[in-house]
Amino acid sequence: MLDGRKINVGVLGATGTVGQRFISLLAEHPFFVIHALGASPRSAGKHYAKAVNWKQVRPIPSQVREIIVHECKPEHFLECEVVFSGLDADVAGDIEASFRLAELAVFSNAKNFRRDPNVPLIVPLVNPTHLSMIRQQRALHSPPLKKGFIVTNANCSTTGAVVPLAVLEKAFGPLESCIITTMQAISGAGYPGLPSFDILDNVVPYISGEEEKIEWETLKILGGIVDDDEGQKVFDMHSRQPLRVSASCNRVPVIEGHTECVSVRFARRPPPSPQQVREALQGYTSDVYTMGCPSAPRHTIFVHEEADRPQPRLDRDYQAGAGVCVGRVRQCRVLDIKFVVLANNVAIGAATSSIINAEYAAIKGEI
Amino acid sequence: MLDGRKINVGVLGATGTVGQRFISLLAEHPFFVIHALGASPRSAGKHYAKAVNWKQVRPIPSQVREIIVHECKPEHFLECEVVFSGLDADVAGDIEASFRLAELAVFSNAKNFRRDPNVPLIVPLVNPTHLSMIRQQRALHSPPLKKGFIVTNANCSTTGAVVPLAVLEKAFGPLESCIITTMQAISGAGYPGLPSFDILDNVVPYISGEEEKIEWETLKILGGIVDDDEGQKVFDMHSRQPLRVSASCNRVPVIEGHTECVSVRFARRPPPSPQQVREALQGYTSDVYTMGCPSAPRHTIFVHEEADRPQPRLDRDYQAGAGVCVGRVRQCRVLDIKFVVLANNVAIGAATSSIINAEYAAIKGEI
Amino acid sequence: MLDGRKINVGVLGATGTVGQRFISLLAEHPFFVIHALGASPRSAGKHYAKAVNWKQVRPIPSQVREIIVHECKPEHFLECEVVFSGLDADVAGDIEASFRLAELAVFSNAKNFRRDPNVPLIVPLVNPTHLSMIRQQRALHSPPLKKGFIVTNANCSTTGAVVPLAVLEKAFGPLESCIITTMQAISGAGYPGLPSFDILDNVVPYISGEEEKIEWETLKILGGIVDDDEGQKVFDMHSRQPLRVSASCNRVPVIEGHTECVSVRFARRPPPSPQQVREALQGYTSDVYTMGCPSAPRHTIFVHEEADRPQPRLDRDYQAGAGVCVGRVRQCRVLDIKFVVLANNVAIGAATSSIINAEYAAIKGEI
Amino acid sequence: MLDGRKINVGVLGATGTVGQRFISLLAEHPFFVIHALGASPRSAGKHYAKAVNWKQVRPIPSQVREIIVHECKPEHFLECEVVFSGLDADVAGDIEASFRLAELAVFSNAKNFRRDPNVPLIVPLVNPTHLSMIRQQRALHSPPLKKGFIVTNANCSTTGAVVPLAVLEKAFGPLESCIITTMQAISGAGYPGLPSFDILDNVVPYISGEEEKIEWETLKILGGIVDDDEGQKVFDMHSRQPLRVSASCNRVPVIEGHTECVSVRFARRPPPSPQQVREALQGYTSDVYTMGCPSAPRHTIFVHEEADRPQPRLDRDYQAGAGVCVGRVRQCRVLDIKFVVLANNVAIGAATSSIINAEYAAIKGEI
Fold this sequence. Notes:
Chains A, B, C, D: Its EC number is 1.2.1.11. Four copies of one chain form a homotetramer. Helices cover 29% and strands 22% of the residues of chain A.
């Protein structure tokens, strides 16, 4: 794809949960090369293997064990072209802005810039073309930038739902409304995250800020980019056909994999049948796969026929968690169609999305 | 209430999960006295303590340990006036019919007669007045009965949802539609029920027959009784204002307590506000409590103010599981109002409902 | 017992996990009356119901909801005679010492003073007579005290093992060695305690400091008090018959109740048979029960006959968790006898022990 | 190894838990080729994909989906040289005997023949040389056999303990006694196995027959083969230096991976230090690895330095579960040394052992 070109990358928040996933995935990447690691001042100066409380099933990749961790300052990442950010929201804003200012391409899993009018919010299986917004982002930046930009990916629970929703809109025209109820894994809360005392033998029917993210991010992702009266490009938030999204978010005692029950109503009457929906979901191929992004899954959506699938424990590792699984496609007595979707919150719901976004940008020549 | 009168009762399916709950609850009852126990032929002839694989936290009540278990034949229950049935559906139909024929009052937790046009389906906190149907049930029976009848209570997941729905209809008029997503405890599947291999670190997004039960039973419970053209009483299935119910049922690794996310749309415009809904739910008092049924909860619905409640582990034992807990009452962007409801599936979702139904019937003089 | 006398008590660390248990238990106590609550400066000045993140199944007792929380300084507890300490070890030392200096009786669940040569370490079902050491504690204090003293109770995992060990020594003479392997509940780690990510679908075969506590505390508790050469009383650490204790501590995904596998070797040859051991354990009655301590369990040890008991979920609430359960008493091919013991780590393993110790002291006239 | 020779194999009990593991592993094997599948009569005649309730994370291997399942009769396996048996003990005895009689090499995970005086019980990382017993097994069979034989592997919980015990004996001479306390995963009980109601938030301190297996099998595996007075070869059951083993077995809410706390006493005085033990364990290489068995792990034992490892969730998949992990090697105050061992009960504890045993036999020319 890149004619053998290698790209040096850095990881910000390298000792955290998302950072560990970035490192696991990038260690085996065909063209991204881990070159620098950033973390908090108390980790800076240590070998990565000493700084991190490694919590992955696979051991620490050998090539990063001895890398010296730095503070998250651009001066330590000058030999990188790309940084992946797994930073917590309380520090991600300033740090990511400083890396963009230093002309680095930032692919962030944090929420801070998702609502920025010039920052694309990209679920790579859905809307990679939103990457085009980075030109305006650079141009309007003060000072204008040549190479630096920020691209965000979506919240983990948004990601799971929006993939089948996007496919349905492509196949059957706009959706009118959507009700989503999530059953989210504890790994979505990072580490230490949820105290075990709160979740063993329990459900917590609330995740702070999560429902708002699903309801807002879905519109930005499924919407288009249009020109406003002043000739600026703007995200239209699905405004040509208003889409109402209502989310209820729950935490369940599952380690990995968000399960979501989704009901949708189509604008078109009559709506598609369950069988038509199944075929559309199963048949979809993402642009990032077609274009050759190496981390893109062959099957964007796997549609289960068994009545009791997908299940997080059995299906979360399908295609290394890079696609999503859908099951139980059937009629809804209130809206039109309902189904279950499972997405791996730490793979396509987090680090994998950032990486595919960067692969796409590299292939497109933006890096 | 009954002027000191005691009523002998039997328990059918006494060694099963629901049967054990009946026995725990009835052992301390003010006017029901456990007099006979029925189970399968392989348990018959044994002392209860030998026949049962007791799985309750509280020990076997001392007064039942030595009772000899019989087969589920009416001849062994002639000194009882009431039987509670915790039988499995594969045998409940014939056995319950035979007890009714023997002029016993049968209060059943099984599904077999729930759809019978002359058998009331009663959630005691909601529609105890449906008990009136038993007169027609006796009259139309062949041969006509003097005392025998069958009353059923609802499926555990239906029960949790229908209590707040009923209160909302009483306060604000008919509902138009309702979407329910459940996260159900494993105890709802009986014993041995779910293999641990299927549910540890997992969600199973399917429970056979459960969604159909919620969607159908809700209509019978919330509907009224009307006269048909031939002068017969019939359950109207909420037909004066059609109500569409859509359910998605999931099993989660929780031992006890079904959590359900519910969204509703009211017929009336504008719909009530979240605060009005909260007040209506909190302020409701059930008829069975007012009339003095000893197992009825003082608070039909406890409305939580905290953002993260109700939770099954913390709230399932409130009022001995006889009421329901609601939380997170808020606007729904697609329908009108959404909330979370928690019901103890083995208490108000099963044995406790049967017992309150029988208490009501006794107080009403039908036993 | 106390002729109707009521005793005002305070709770230190009132908002923590152990503090919440103290409050739940004391709210219904026949002669202790909650009068003052102490917590960290950030809670001080607030109503208890506002300061606490209540995590108990039973609601906050109504009489403490409105109590104003104070900092843990003796000046706020002058109307109390007793304080119960659920403080964390990092602050318990100084605070408890200051309360003793202010002539208060301190019953502490913290580890700080357990190894103090003048502070008794009392498992109330085992060695309440060690309370006698408080006279020397007062006398040697600088300045000497009239009423103030500190009594500690044991670590939760020590408590479970030491109860049957003490009974065996009383019945069959000294033990020679003991191997203990624990499977401990997550509630033993306080709140937030163990991250769920670390314990779901997992065992953690290590608990910091826990094995040392079991190996050391057991000797102090099972040992006697003797006079040394200078006429001082000293804990003999079981030195007349050296006892070797080896512990292996594990954390398992259980909410409440520590299960421990114990093998023992007796000094006496031949050792007692399993049946003799069972009878000794079942037949034991504690002094604190005999003397009328209201929180003491009627049965110190319940001996299960079923092969698969005790189990934490089924047995941890027996006698409100104030006794211990033993099962599987059988021969050990390496030592003499092995068995399983279950103790409720948050009841007899923590707050309940402190309270019984205080009841005993009150009945003995030391308060 | 085999010069490109391929060996047709069959799997008995192919639809069960162990059978599914055999199929997953054999589908990618370098020289074993799945040729026939056997299961109960109700599965016979169906395509494997239809007959099986597949419960593995990896999908059904494509090459077995369409294989027609047969009853477990030798006539259907005539083109196989080897059969692997994942049969339940209630049927394994007769079936395995019939396959041996038909001159097939049977590698069985079932317990039925483990105690047979002519059947080797082989943990491949420990005692593959016991394979030599099959010559006598064939010779003494009636009628004598040319190729048929049965080899068993050990119980899953025995396997975990016996690997480090064997290494310790090789390095430091015979052991005198050993106390083992297990915390076993639910997958060890097969499917459906343990009801979720019994194990969520719980420990079950009993597994039927398990302690006896550990105590007996360990002696057969660690012992040698000697000639008796009549010139027959016999397993000496470690009788030259009697070894006493005491086991306590517990089930915990873990899906996969048995964790065991082990204390040992050596015959030699003084015993080795913890550091010597660590080095011996870490340095050991198994014969099956040296000889090139493709499923043998490079590291027989991985010794963790971190205080809190091994843990089942993090370590069970190390080397595809084919080795074992040891941690916390330290002195025992009662015996000499104690440590924690983790073994993957469904890999080295079951199917992987059978397969390595067969690889060894093939390389040795016995197949």
